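User: If only I could read backbone structure tokens as easily as an amino acid sequence. Those tokens are not coordinates but codes from a learned vocabulary of shapes. Could you go through the record with me and say what the backbone is doing? Here is the record:
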Amino acid sequence: MTDGPDRYVLHATCASVPRWATRSSSDAAGVIRTPDGGLAVIMIDVQGSGPGGSTLARSLFAQASNLLHAGLTADLVVAGLHLNLHQQRGGKVLASILLAVQSSDARAVQIVTAGDHAIAFGASEAISTELLASRATGSSRGVDAVSRVIAFAPDTVLVLPNDGVAATQAELRDLLPTGANGADWSAAGFLNRAIERDHLRPRSDMAVACLSLARPSLVDGIETSALSISSLRPLERET
């Protein structure tokens, strides 16, 4: 973050919805504050569904949040949680974890994942996609996490979907805003486009986070962060 008129804060949104015809998700996603005032995205993707998967996802989210608040680095949090799962569940991890943690100056985000995640980043006119692949989910050999640092400029966006939204780079590219939706880079926008792709019946638990730099708002001379955290349920399901 810089002083003067070019000062920006990191803006993060997160949106999620359960799989069609279910009321609880076996994934968990959200944005938290870190002890230094920055932001961190936590995304948990548990294999399977039902109450057990939902409970495990919420537990892993809470553990990741607590460890980040305790000052551990994203690398240590991901490795520690996966090693613990590996030991508790007889060599089967059955979950993937992604953390995206803001640097102290808001000009970069470190992504650490044990699992496979397609991501998109860049300026809205020149977005690149990338597949971050590790050897964690279901592995009997422990954790092989991947770390990636994304540098931010004022027009940079970073999109972090779970595999229900986009499991591959091609699926993610199909969700990039175009035409009338060309300006909608929000998490809700990506989520709703994925729901429309699935003919309004999400085939899997969906979650997506979007990060960008935004100008801070000033209230009575006090700077406030443009942080937005949401958990959306855009569909009314029949019961």
In short: The radius of gyration is 17 Å. Helices lie at 51-69, 74-88, 169-174, 187-197. The longest strand covers residues 9-17.
